[in-house]
Structure to design on (193 residues):
């Protein structure tokens, strides 16, 4: 629908929105595509730093009456980009997350193999300060065996305890294998309705 390089370029706040945030390459764009069943919608890539703007998509599901904006965000924590670029993206991410009244929930994506990294902690602190409702979504679960998934889940749940803005339910997903997409759809409905 629209791409914004600064918060001045965002749509007015009349439509509820949810955003996909997380480290570069964690799988934000791929998961957004999988969630709506539309492969080429948000651009994905093997190279971190693919998404560089706030990309808006309008979801208008006739069957359920669900209408909202889905926002694909640039990733953070990508050390190899030019310093100037990193500053630009980080500024955009922070401005957006801090000051968007119609932002109903942030889905914070975390690689199931890696768990929380320092850059995730910084964003969690910002979300906590700004009192933004947040739900953590583990990605790339296909890379872990079932037992390892449970371990990753429990470790993360314990680490997230201090963050009161974080929803108690963690969603385990794999866009590749279609794991957890229904749970994520439920979470989206819960956030918007
Ligand atoms: P930036 O836009 O750079 O911040 O990255 P992103 O978080 O949008 O990641 P993107 O969706 O572009 O995916 C990054 C890489 O991870 C791509 O090579 C995807 O194919 C891969 N990927 C995404 N989801 C999955 C998954 O569920 N399983 C596996 N194995 N790979 C995945
Ligand atoms: Mg992306």
């Amino acid at each position: 629908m629209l791409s914004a390089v600064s918060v001045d370029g965002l749509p007015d706040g009349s439509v509820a929105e949810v955003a996909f945030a997380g480290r570069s390459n964690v799988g934000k764009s791929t998961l957004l595509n999988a969630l709506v069943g539309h492969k080429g919608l948000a651009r994905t890539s093997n190279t971190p730093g693919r998404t560089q703007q706030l990309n808006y998509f309008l979801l208008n599901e006739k069957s359920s009456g669900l209408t909202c904006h889905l926002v694909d965000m640039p990733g953070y924590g990508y050390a190899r980009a030019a310093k100037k670029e990193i500053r630009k993206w980080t500024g955009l991410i922070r401005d957006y997350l801090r000051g968007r009244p119609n932002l109903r929930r942030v889905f914070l994506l975390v690689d199931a193999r890696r768990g929380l990294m320092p850059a995730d902690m910084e964003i969690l602190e910002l979300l906590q300060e700004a009192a933004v409702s947040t739900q953590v979504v583990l990605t790339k679960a296909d890379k872990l065996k079932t037992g390892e998934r449970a371990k990753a889940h429990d470790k993360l749940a314990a680490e997230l305890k201090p963050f009161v803005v974080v929803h108690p339910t963690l969603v385990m997903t794999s866009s590749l294998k279609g794991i957890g997409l229904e749970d994520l759809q439920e979470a989206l409905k819960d956030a918007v309705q």
In short: Strands lie at 2-4, 17-22, 54-61, 66-72, 103-111, 134-139, 171-172. Residues 2-192 form a domain with the Rossmann fold fold (CATH 3.40.50.300).
